[in-house]
Structures are given as C-alpha cells and as structure tokens.
Amino acid sequence: MEMETPIKVLLVDDHEMVRIGLAAVLGTEDGIEVVGEAGSGEEGIRLAQEYHPDVVLMDLVMDGMDGIETTRLLMNQFPNLKVIVLTSYLDDEKMYPVIEAGAFSYLLKTSRASEVADAIRAAARGQSVLESQVASKMMNRFRHPQNEAPAHNDLTDREMEVLRLLAQGKSNQDIADDLIIGIKTVKFHVTNILGKLGVEDRTQAAIYAYKNGLAE
C-alpha cells in the first residue's frame, strides 16, 4: 500500500522548550512531520524557503520580527501556505491583525496536543479552526451595524446554509453530504458566496460569517 505523504510542519517560536515539546508530541502523530524549528520570525522565513512546509505553527510575540509580520511576509511568498497561530494571547491588537495578515487558524497554547494535531490535519484539508474563545470574541466585536445593509442580504437561502457550514470548517464534500446536493453544486454556491460577500477565500467568508453573527 502506498504511504500518504506526511504533512510538513514548521515550528516558529522563540521559546526553545516550547519547540522541543511540540516537536516531541507531533512526532508521535501519524501523517505529520516536523521539518524545521525556528526561534525567530526571520529564521522562520528562511526555513520556509528551504523546506517548503505545508503548515506553519506560529507564535505571536517574539523578539525581532513578531508573528504578525512574519505571517504577512510568509503569505506574500507562499499564498497556499497554512499558518496556524499558536499563542497565549487573546488581545484584540494581536488577534485581528494576524488574521488579516492571512493566518488560517488561531489556537491557544492551552489547547491539547490532540487539538493542535487535528488543526494541522484540518489545515491540510483546507479547513480553518478557531479556538472557541477566539470565535466568540470575533462574533461579539464584529456584529454588523443594524443601519447598514449587509452584503449577505444578497445570498439565497441555500447560499446561507452553505455559508454557515463553511464557517464551521466543513469541506465541500462535507457540505454536499449534509445538504444532500452534488459537490459541483456546492462549489457553484461557494463561488457565488465569495463574489457576493466581496471576499477572496473560504477563510475570509468564515470570518465574515462570525463578524455578522451568522455562525454558531
């Protein structure tokens, strides 16, 4: 039987013990390979250029270049890279800028090792993960003002169903199974949703859904 290609993960954190712990834990997970460890944002960019990882686990607060700027530079160079923020911080001034910079998922360092591994696998499938406290903060902060007509008013009832499932991190196949429709139909709806909301990708659509109180 042909072995599946492992998900290549790069660790970027300025605390050596954190990197050692993560590398040890993820090294026991099937289908995940830690290809490099960086102690700074600058080193993270260099190692990403060398190893071309699929997923980067990114700390936010580091000496020199912080996680926000590192994420922004990585996404400019590697648009398909999935950056998962793994941090102790829930501060608005850190959380929202790194998401806007292109972070795919946001986890706290209090997350269980299994949750981090699941988030890596989800990212490899194109599914973003937001820690529950992060999702709650986003929904509370970004509710759309009632006196403005939100873009989602143009969505059909079916498109709203697809958007809610998309915001839960479900894949096109999951959405097709849940709604009992074809996957081509799901792709058609997703394309329409992105166009109507004026966003570029599924992550931004999910963020929009949380901002406007459309996702549970």
UniProtKB/TrEMBL annotation:
It comes from the Bacteria. InterPro entries: CheY-like_superfamily, NreC/VraR/RcsB-like_REC, Sig_transdc_resp-reg_C-effctor, Sig_transdc_resp-reg_receiver, Tscrpt_reg_LuxR_C, WalR-like. CDD domains: LuxR_C_like, REC_NarL-like. Residues 148-213 form the HTH luxR-type domain. The keyword DNA-binding applies. The keyword Kinase does not apply. GO terms for molecular function: DNA binding. Keywords: DNA-binding, Phosphoprotein, Transcription, Transcription regulation. The modification 4-aspartylphosphate is found at residue 59. Residues 8-124 form the Response regulatory domain. Gene3D superfamilies: 3.40.50.2300. SMART domains: HTH_LUXR, REC. One of its GO terms (biological process) is phosphorelay signal transduction system. This is LuxR family transcriptional regulator. Transmembrane segments: none annotated.
